[in-house]
């Protein structure tokens, strides 16, 4: 039933399976505010541009590119706390059709891994808020794998932990070029971008995405 013998789908969360609606940027503003960079600071626009350009990557790595180590750690903790509060306040919804897509894939025998650039407490908060504790086969963060996107570590960790025989039997889907690059570096046959988050079709084409989908809800049809 599944083209290319796909046995594992690795899916990003914010922007791909979970609606972002500006939450990352809101949490970022609060995070850098905690280390003395207000939204009116001359440094803020360039920092925000960097955050937008690195969507999907490990958040601590993003902060380390902007701040000295001590401040980066402080900002990262503030970011996770701010994002967690937004989730707890109800600002967390699935991308329409995402949950059904995951269920359809698993019913067809495809294992599903949810991945993120967030730390474990934030990922757990999102999964709990959506009632997704049993939806996927595994949920991974950069800390679980060694490095975050665009490195292939989370994809390969999912392959190992779920007993996938061949990286060519993997499909990776996400809303940023980093998601696509991580999939290609891992050897996945499908490294698809979705247009429900941070990036455009041309940005996905620039990193040689195998497919560009309107939404993750279109993935089961692609694999059928």
Automatic annotation (TrEMBL):
Transmembrane segments: none annotated. It comes from the Bacteria. InterPro entries: HAD-like_hydrolase_sf (IPR050155), HAD-like_sf (IPR036412), HAD_sf (IPR023214), PhnX-like (IPR022468). Pfam families: Hydrolase. This is Phosphonatase-like hydrolase.
């Amino acid at each position: 039933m599944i083209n290319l013998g796909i046995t594992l789908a690795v899916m990003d969360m914010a922007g791909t399976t979970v609606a972002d609606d500006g939450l990352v940027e809101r949490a970022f503003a609060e995070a850098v505010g905690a280390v003395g960079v207000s939204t009116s600071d001359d440094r803020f626009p360039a920092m925000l541009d960097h955050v937008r350009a690195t969507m999907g990557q490990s958040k601590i790595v993003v902060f380390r590119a902007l701040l000295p180590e001590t401040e980066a750690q402080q900002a990262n903790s503030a970011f996770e706390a701010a994002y967690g509060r937004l989730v707890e306040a109800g600002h967390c919804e699935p991308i329409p059709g995402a949950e059904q897509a995951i269920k359809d894939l698993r019913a067809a025998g495809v294992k599903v891994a949810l991945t993120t650039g967030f730390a474990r407490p934030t990922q757990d908060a999102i999964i709990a808020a959506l009632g997704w504790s049993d939806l996927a086969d595994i949920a991974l963060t950069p800390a679980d794998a060694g490095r975050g996107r665009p490195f292939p570590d989370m994809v390969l960790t999912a392959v190992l932990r779920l007993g996938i025989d061949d990286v060519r039997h993997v499909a990776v889907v996400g809303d940023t070029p980093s998601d696509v690059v991580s999939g290609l570096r891992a050897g996945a046959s499908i490294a698809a971008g979705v247009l429900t988050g941070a990036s455009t079709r041309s940005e996905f084409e620039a990193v040689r995405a195998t497919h560009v989908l309107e939404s993750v809800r279109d993935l089961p049809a692609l694999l059928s």
